[in-house]
Structures are given as C-alpha cells and as structure tokens.
Amino acid sequence: MTASAPITQDVVTIPRKDTHGDGARVNLVGMTRPEMLAALIELGTPEKQARMRLRQLWAWIYERGVRRFDEMTNLSKPYREELAAHFTIALPEIVTKSVSSDGTRKYLVRINGGHEVETVYIPEEGRGTLCISSQVGCTLTCSFCHTGTQRLVRNLTAAEIVGQIMLARDDLGEWPAPGRNPKNETRLLSNIVLMGMGEPLYNFDNVRDAMKIAMDPEGISLSRRRITLSTSGVVPEIAKTAEEIGCLLAVSFHATTDEVRDKLVPINRKWNIAALLDALRAYPKLSNSERITFEYVMLKDVNDSDEDAHRLVRLIEGIPAKINLIPFNEWPGAPYRRSSNNRIRAFADIIYKAGYASPIRTPRGEDIMAACGQLKSATERARKSRAQIAADVASG
Ligand code: SAH
Ligand code: SF4
Question: Is 237 a catalytic residue?
C-alpha cells in the first residue's frame, strides 16, 4: 500500500474469543467477568456458586499468575478436573527476548497462526512501563513508522493483549508469593502504554476488554491513570475510549497543517486536524482524565520549524495538554532524518514558554530496535526497500 492509498481496514478477522483455546477447550484468559461467569454456568456450575468460583478463578489467574487448575487449592479436586477438561489458561509465547544496554527488554511474541508481535518493557527509576501491541502490523501507513510498512495485519484478541502483560510479569518474576498482598508492593511493571504495533482504536473491543482486565482491582489492578492509549486519530472512537475505558489518551499529532499531516499520518485525510481537535477537546471532560499527550515526532525539515511550534501552540489552545517530542527513530530504509538536537530544543522552548510541558522523549532500546516506531516482526522486517518507501512518500 502506498501513502496515498485509500484507508481501508484490511484486517484478517478471527473469532474475537478464539484465544489460544486448543479446539476442544476454551481459553479463560481474555474473557470478561460476565463471559467467564456464563462459561462456568454453562459448564454446570450451580448459579449460586458460580460468582464465588469466578472470583476464585480470577484471583488465581490475574492476581497470582497461576496457569494450572491443579494448583487452585481452594477448589475441590473434581471441580479442578472438570475445569481442566473444558478450559485452558493460555498465553502467547515469548520466542526471543533481547535486552538493551539501557535495560530495555524487547520480547518477540508468537500468537496463534504463527504471527508475531513485539512487546517492550522499559525500566525507569521506581517504575516500569510496558509498551504493548494491539495488532499484527498496522493498516495505516504513517510514512515515518516501521510498523506501517508491514503488510500483514490481524487484530490481537483480548487474551493476546492482556497476555503480553502477563508474559512480562512472568519474565520480571512479578507475581506475588502466596500470602503477600500484591497491591502493596512496588511494581516493576507499573504503567502500560498502548504504543506498540497497531492502531488500538481499530481493535476497540478487544483492547477495551483487555484493559478492563488489567484494571480490575481483584487482579492485575493497574489504575486507569497508569494506562495510556495512543491513537493516530480515529476520531469516532475517541469519545468511546473515554466512556468505555477511561484511560489516559495520547495522540500522534506530528504536524500542524493538514497538508503535512496528510502525508505523515494518512488517516488525516479521513479525519483532519480540525475534526481531531474537536474530539480531543471533549475527551478530558468525558473521562475525567488528566492532560492529553500530544506526540510529535521530530523530522528534519519536515515539521520542525519555529513556525510549526507556534502553530501547534495556537491549535491546541484550551486543551489540557503536554507535548511529547519524539526524536525520530531511524529504521532501515526510513525516508526521513531526525531533527538536530538544537532544533528539537528550540522547538521545545517555544512550547514551554507558551505554558506547556514539552518533554523530549529519550529513545530507549535503540540498539535492539525497540524504540518507538521501530517495531516490526522479524519475518516482515526489511521487506520494503528504501527506494520503494521513498517512492511511496513522493507519491503521497
Ligand atoms: N498506532 C498508534 C500507536 C503506536 S505508535 C499511534 O500511531 O499512535 C506509538 C508512537 O510512536 C506514535 O506517536 C507514533 O507516531 C510514533 N512513531 C512511529 N514511528 C516512529 C519513529 N520511527 N520514530 C519516532 N516515533 C515514531
Ligand atoms: Fe500504525 Fe501508529 Fe505506525 Fe501510524 S504510527 S502506521 S497508526 S502504528
């Protein structure tokens, strides 16, 4: 697809809840509470008991990280056997793990059908952020983004999305030992950003279900204020995000005129800057959230002038915002260059003087190609040549 191609949702669909069941048995991971309750009742659990069983199962799976029914000691042996005969507790599989010199961990994760996505853990002082993927590849074709050059796309299931969090907790050894209250421990994995591969708002239902599981106070128990969903600007889904998930929002803004944004973030041709800003003005009120993060990738001589910075400030006036400047992360064949440090600082300064926080994001895990926008599964990597991408951009 070229940068000028129409925007379609050319996604391979699979049943939403076919989540690493093994054909005969159904996966419990990724089910919402009402879905799991219904599954237990269908199994023959008396309705009076089912709520209690649901709470017990939920705690084993999401609070303790247990994967085997026979370890669920507060359930009777026959009931455990019954569960094991009908259900699985299945996660996607870590194929490889790379660790950067700065401690960033990148996991290549295999999902059903042999597809691969990437998940990145970024340790920070006193906290840690997991960057999770929502799709294999991305149907959108932002011209500066490596994921956007990947052709194959499928939506991840809720199990595969929440499964990335569970896998990372496995790897970090973060499931609490019995008897310890998990909520009182300092978390290695304290924050989630939906900034990996894919456009989360094009996989809304699964992202919502997975985030609800992640936020559930009787399980993984992450606060909605520690989850940030990044969208390229799927305008009709933004209000729904506020209402049905309530997490923080980041938006890939990246340009201050429609002409430039059309080229960088082609979804802009469908919902332009004015339409996007309208949706963003309503967001904090709907979700009772804090500021919106405006992500802005710094591309040399494309969107990084003083004039752009002034225009940006004018555009977002009245929106509680912080502007996150992302030095462009290069990838093999990328058609852009990173703005110079001086240019980025000058741009940040204009925004800061206008009263907005304007942190410059330090690229993490660059040596293992784990930085923003560098993700792409190994099988798909480098399929497009530099010349091909340059041609796409020129024709956009
Ligand atoms: N699809 C969503 C979320 C994933 S991308 C979105 O576009 O918002 C996460 C962030 O990284 C986005 O702001 C994206 O525009 C940015 N990004 C993509 N490629 C990049 C690159 N090569 N260098 C720096 N940032 C990039
Ligand atoms: Fe998709 Fe986001 Fe990359 Fe654009 S920046 S191609 S929306 S992952």
Answer: no
